[in-house]
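User: Quick one: structure for sequence A, then sequence B.

Assistant: Sequence A:
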Amino acid sequence: MKSDDSSVGNLEEEARKRKERLEQMKRRLNNENNDSTSEDNKLVLPKPIFRSYNPTDEKLKENSLPKPKPESVEKQIEDQLTVANNPQVLDEVDLTSLAPRKVDWDLKRNLQQKLDKLEKRTQRAIAELIRERLRESSVVDLATATQDLEATQNNVDFDED
């Protein structure tokens, strides 16, 4: 029983210490807040500067900026007119640099990826046809089977032209 009483005493003592620390923290925060509010009262607010607003109060009119005067653009206009009146003539014009590439260069560029995919599929299909012919004819000689396929392919290419 004594051990229970001593542990309860320790818990009460720890709780009391915790309360004291909390009270100290509250006092510190209150002191800091009081210091900051007193500093805020001491700070001088910046004076407003009015660019486009025309205040009616005389004290505020002192803070307004004078109205800006428009800049003279006459010199800039004269420069532009002199440039426009004296056109520069190019002596040499390279017509090859002006001519477009080929008419369908952009179409080829856009289709190139699709054509690459189709080429891979075509190669796979050709390989599959070779395998099927080998199975059907049970020809052991791979060279003759590939020559037969190339010959049929050449005939098909020749017919397309």
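Sequence B:
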Amino acid sequence: MIWSICYFCCGCCCDSGNNNNEFIDNFQQEPGAVERGQHLVHTTRGYTICSRDYDCLPTSHEIQELRKKLTKTTSYVYSRPFTEMSKITDYLFMTSFGGICEESIRKNKIAFIVSVTHETPLYKVDGIHNIRIPAEDHRTENIYKYFDDISDIITEMETKEVVTLVHCRLGRSRSATITMAHLMKSQRMSLDLAYDLVKSKRPFIGVNPGFIRQLLKYEI
């Protein structure tokens, strides 16, 4: 792996790369961050956090019909490979927002959904518990503060044999970051091993460099 390059250069996309790195270095774990996140109205950079809830899960047919009505620039959220339901462990799955449908949720007996987005609604459906991590997919976003909290919650679900689904908009960056952080804490994996496992189950993940740096910080 070339994580050392990412660690020192994750800010290279912008002129203030070194400042971004120093900014991330100051991130700390914040006990209770997940709970506080449920009550936020705006993200750190000022985007409104979606307050809509859906009271039923869409069927796969409804998703197909929706995809036909959307433009090419938005329909990819509801298209493969992003909508694939990726089994990471016996009790942990990943997908995109568009991959959430009644058939896959029931088939895999998913009862807990972690939405790592600020921009998508939550499914408030009987028998399914939801929690939101209102993170943006941006290199300076502090997703690090949620790592301990959300891993502890997912671990608690696993001990109760509750199946968890982690998703973001595309199931590539934010959800992959949370999933890897959980594996690193709960199974004492290195970042290399956690990344390789998630990548083997969901080959098209693409974690933004700022999140890689935060995962490296978490590993250290």
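The first helix runs from residue 3 to 9. The longest strand covers residues 110-115.

User: Thanks, that's what I needed.
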